Amino acid sequence: MIIRSTWWPICATSIALCLTTVSARSDADDGEKLARRWCASCHLAAPDQRQASTDAPPFATIGRMPGFSREKLAFFLLAPHPKMPDMSLSRSEAADLADYIAKLGRTGP
Ligand code: HEC
User: Fold this and answer.
1) Which end of the chain is less enclosed by CB atoms within 10 A, N or C?
2) From 27, 39, 86, mutation site for ligand 1 pocket: most ligand atoms within 8 A of C-beta
3) Number of domains in the chain
4) 92 Cα–ligand 1 center, Å
């Protein structure tokens, strides 16, 4: 009994710690890497980026569009888009990018 009551809080804390670490290493960080690698040639993909093609909307703008949702965006990214090359993103890559763009929309460049 003593063992249980002493160890439980510690176990619970370390599980919580683990979970926080996992979510702190958030998908948005992976999304940012992907965005810089795959999208920056056309889009303003990060706040510190200066130049991009003129007809592709900056990601911060996309993240602020009315009706924007991570789910819709992730889905959009999985289907080829006429003006964009088909990048054959995986589901998790599309979700990471959507997370990242949603974050940009909240924080702005
Ligand atoms: C070759 C250039 C090019 C690349 C690379 C590119 N895009 Fe685009 N993207 C465009 C253009 C141009 C538009 C505007 C399309 C339009 O107006 O129909 C666009 C539009 C979009 C939109 C907005 C769609 C809407 O609803 O208006 C999203 C979201 C998007 N791109 C995400 C991405 C992501 C994420 C990547 C990287 C994985 C990427 N793009 C890579 C050219 C590109």
Assistant:
1) N
2) 39
3) 1
4) 18
Q: Which of 43, 55, 65, 72 to mutate to test the pocket of ligand 1 (most atoms within 8 A of CB)?
A: 43
The answer as to whether 59 is a domain residue is yes
Rounded Cα distance between 47 and 66, Å, is 20
10 within a domain of the structure (yes/no): no
Residue span of the structural domain in which 77 resides: 26-107
Q: How far is the CA of 73 from the centre of ligand 1 (A)?
A: 11
Interval 81-103: pLDDT, tens: 777 777 888 889 999 999 999 99
pTM (predicted TM-score): 0.77
Classify residue 3: in a domain, yes or no: no
Q: What angle do CA 86, 32, 65 make, to 5 degrees?
A: 75
Q: What is the CA radius of gyration of the chain?
A: 19
Minimal-distance CA residue to ligand 1 atom 18: 83
The answer, yes or no, to whether any atom of ligand 1 lies below 6 A from the CB of 94, is no
**Per-residue tokens: 60:** 């911060």
